[in-house]
Design brief:
two-stranded parallel sheet; 6 helices; about 60% helix
Length: about 180
């Protein structure tokens, strides 16, 4: 009996060819579907850039913040591509990240603060304002306080949006960073 004339073999062979053709022709997944991978080379580049700019070794405490910023930027870049700002030229990457941050900040609750909200903001420790402000100084202080309040509220809204976007991405870091970094989902 000649096994190569069996219809079942022909069916399996042709099915395999169709499957192979489909796999080869399938488009690559969009970048938002891929995990965010931070490699050891990325970390080494961060360290090198820090040492070049600062003239000293990168402190371990700063490394976590730089990696967090790298993940933050990648999320913003992917979201910018997702909403149609898709010019993936390397020079445009920084502009896309800045554009996405601006877009998010534009929609990040720009309501006018009330005097009560400004007074509460004024009383927060570490905001650079004296805690006791006389009523006659209030009118002079209010415009700058309003600007600072808007800036702080926009930054808080941006961080909340990034946190909500971050749930959509898997972040993969090198094992060597595990004892040093904590990347929260």
């Amino acid at each position: 009996m000649r096994w190569y004339r069996e219809p079942l073999l022909h069916f399996v062979f042709l099915g395999g060819l169709v499957f192979l053709y489909h796999e080869v022709r399938r488009p690559a997944p969009p970048p938002t579907e891929l995990p965010i991978v931070i490699t050891q080379d990325d970390v080494n580049q961060l360290r090198s850039r820090w040492e070049t700019e600062q003239g000293q070794p990168l402190p371990v405490a700063q490394l976590s913040g730089l990696v967090q910023r790298m993940v933050h930027e990648e999320i913003l870049f992917r979201e910018a591509v997702k909403v149609g700002l898709a010019q993936t030229d390397p020079v445009m990457r920084r502009q896309l990240i800045a554009s996405m941050e601006s877009l998010l900040l534009e929609f990040a609750g720009q309501a006018e603060p009330s005097d009560q909200e400004l007074r509460i903001f004024l009383e927060r420790p570490g905001n650079g304002y004296p805690t006791a402000v006389r009523e006659e100084d209030w009118d002079q202080l209010r415009p700058q306080l309003r600007e600072d309040w808007l800036r702080a509220s926009k930054q808080q809204a941006l961080e909340e949006m990034i946190t909500s976007y971050r749930r959509d991405y898997e972040v993969i870091l090198p094992a060597s960073l595990a004892p040093v970094l904590e990347v929260t989902p």
